[in-house]
Every structure is written in structure tokens, then in C-alpha cells.
Amino acid sequence: MPAINLPFVLSVVGAFLTSSAVGYIYVWPWLRSLPRVEALRSLAAFHAFRFFGMNFLVTGFVSPELNPDFASQVGWGDLIAAALALFSMAALSRGWSIAIPAVWVFNIWGTLDLLNAYYMGATQLKDPGLMGAGIYVPALYVPLLLVSHVLIFLLLFKVGPAEDHSATPAPART
To answer: So where does this one cross the membrane (predicted)?
Structure first.
């Protein structure tokens, strides 16, 4: 198992803490003000950019010494997540009956893909510097993505009258 690179770990932890704080203070209240479908579609749109992970397969973006199994799983896993996010956006936009199940599939896949990439990085990557320019993906982008996956799960578990896909109006003031 590789030695722990403390500056990298602190960078990732800082990104998780900041992403969580921003998500809780700013993003979650905004999402809750939207109809559920709109909130889910907005979060899925953020994940549609995960095709960026394919760059882990590009020599020059990453070191040629980067474990090819790691690079391949990161790249293809992210591309699949991006495709699932785009499909979820389409299903939500068109009101398809499979929209919510599609979001579930996308969100479970996307979460497990990111957790797998972190696990592989921790157990197979001898030096985070081998990610080259890609070091910003696990150090900044992945924490943002994982926090948004949590927000999607919170919206998916939301049950009751608000599930009719419309915003709940604020009570009238007298």
C-alpha cells in the first residue's frame, strides 16, 4: 500500500468540508425550493460533465507511469456516469415514467464509481503526482460530485405530497 501523501489528503479533506458546507448553506435550500424534477435535473446536469474523466487515458494529462487499470476505470466509469446523467436529464425533461428510476441508476452508479476510484487510488496509486493535471479531479471535482450525489439521494428519498413534481407553495400570510 502506498504511503500517505499528507498534503494531498488534506487537500481532499478540505474540498469535502468546503463542498459540504456550500452544499448545505447555499445549494440545498435552493434545491428544496424547486420542484423535485427540476432539482434532480439541475444536479444531473452537473454530472453530465463527467466525460472529463476520460482524460485520465490521455498521456500528457497524466504520467505514462500512472497505473493503466486505475486510469481505465476512472475514465470509463466517469463516461458511463456522464451518459447516465444525460439520459436522466432527458427522462426528467420529457416526463418519462422511467425518469426517477433512471436517476436512481445514475446516482448509484455515479456514487459507487467515485468511491471505487478513491479506493483504487488509495490502494494502487503510488504517487498522486502521477495524475499530473488530473490531480484536480480527485482533489476538487470529486468532492463536489460526491456531495451532489448525497443531495440527489436526499431528493430521491423525499416522499409524500411534494412528490407530485410541483413546488409546495408557501403558506399564505395573514
So the answer is: 6-31, 43-62, 74-92, 99-119, 139-157
Q: What is the mean pLDDT of each run of 10 residues along the chain (174 residues)?
A: 81 96 97 96 97 92 92 96 98 98 98 95 88 92 97 86 42 48
Residue 62 phi, psi (nearest 5): -125, 165
d(CA 65, CA 52): 20
Backbone angles phi, psi at 97, to 5 degrees: -65, -20
pTM of the model: 0.87
**β-strand partners of 59:** 62
Q: How many whole angstroms separate alpha carbon 128 and alpha carbon 118?
A: 11
Q: How many CB atoms lie within 10 A of CB 128?
A: 20
Here the cell at position 164 is: 407530485
Q: Rounded CA gap, 151 and 139, in Å?
A: 20
